[in-house]
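pls design
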């Protein structure tokens, strides 16, 4: 019996109890309070089918705190979601071997803004293209533009630059120089765009060629938008989708939890910064 127990990696007493039928099966651990939390988690998963257990836990605790109730540990949320088959399927993908020079994240807001574009296709074949500006610290989408069946122009980029400065500072020029990180797309490297950026107090910076991770903040937002909004929303025609993008951006700014922001949304994080300033 000792040889068998050693081969199976169990103790002799455990193997003896199993053979004699004396071993009691372990029951799944649960708390009596789980029953009150399960419907809340189920509703959140139904509304946010692409969210993992950590983001679901952040939304759940946000809801509980608003009702004056105690928050729930994320490990408990994981256990409940596992019991009710609500966890996301794990996917493994190899990271592409691109060079990443420097660190995109900065220590406070309005030091570096990042900009990029994305596109997706509607069910009727219409193509939506969009560009945006995101703060590398607080992750808020400050300004954006979207067009149907056309490309993003240098004029569009200059418009969102001006809008971003106006929204953040209520003026036509930033009070101090802000780095403006983007790829080497023609709307960004255009001479008119670079001159206009400097007039606004922005310093144009460009990522190395074939190194999208050098603008990782923007890349992460594009991935989030496509996963959490585009892939789970009906996209019949361009006019319909163009009317939805604003709601997507507002929902992202107001509600989307970020691990880098301690599971707070961009605007929650900004509000907390202002409160402690």
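designed seq:
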């Amino acid at each position: 019996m000792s040889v068998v127990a050693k081969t199976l990696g169990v103790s002799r007493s455990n193997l003896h109890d199993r053979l004699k039928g004396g071993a009691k099966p372990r029951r799944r651990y649960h708390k009596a309070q789980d029953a009150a939390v399960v419907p809340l988690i189920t509703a959140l998963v139904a509304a946010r089918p692409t969210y993992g257990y950590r983001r679901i836990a952040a939304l759940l605790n946000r809801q509980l705190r608003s009702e004056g109730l105690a928050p729930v540990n994320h490990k408990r949320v994981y256990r409940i979601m596992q019991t009710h088959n609500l966890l996301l399927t794990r996917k493994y993908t190899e990271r592409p071997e691109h060079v990443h020079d420097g660190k995109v994240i900065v220590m406070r807001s309005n030091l570096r803004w990042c900009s990029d574009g994305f596109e997706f296709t509607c069910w009727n074949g219409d193509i939506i293209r969009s560009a945006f500006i995101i703060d590398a610290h607080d992750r808020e989408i400050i300004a954006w533009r979207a067009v149907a069946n056309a490309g993003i122009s240098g004029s569009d980029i200059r418009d969102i630059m001006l809008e971003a400065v106006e929204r953040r500072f209520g003026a036509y020029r930033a009070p101090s120089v802000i780095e403006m990180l983007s790829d080497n797309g023609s709307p960004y490297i255009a001479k008119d765009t670079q001159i206009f950026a400097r007039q606004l107090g922005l310093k144009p910076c460009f990522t190395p060629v074939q190194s999208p991770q050098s603008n990782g903040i923007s890349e992460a937002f594009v991935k989030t938008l496509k996963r959490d909004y585009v892939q789970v929303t009906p996209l019949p025609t361009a006019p319909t989708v163009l009317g939805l993008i604003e709601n997507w951006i507002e929902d992202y700014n107001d509600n989307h939890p970020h691990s880098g922001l301690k599971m707070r949304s961009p605007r929650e994080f900004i509000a907390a910064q202002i409160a402690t300033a």
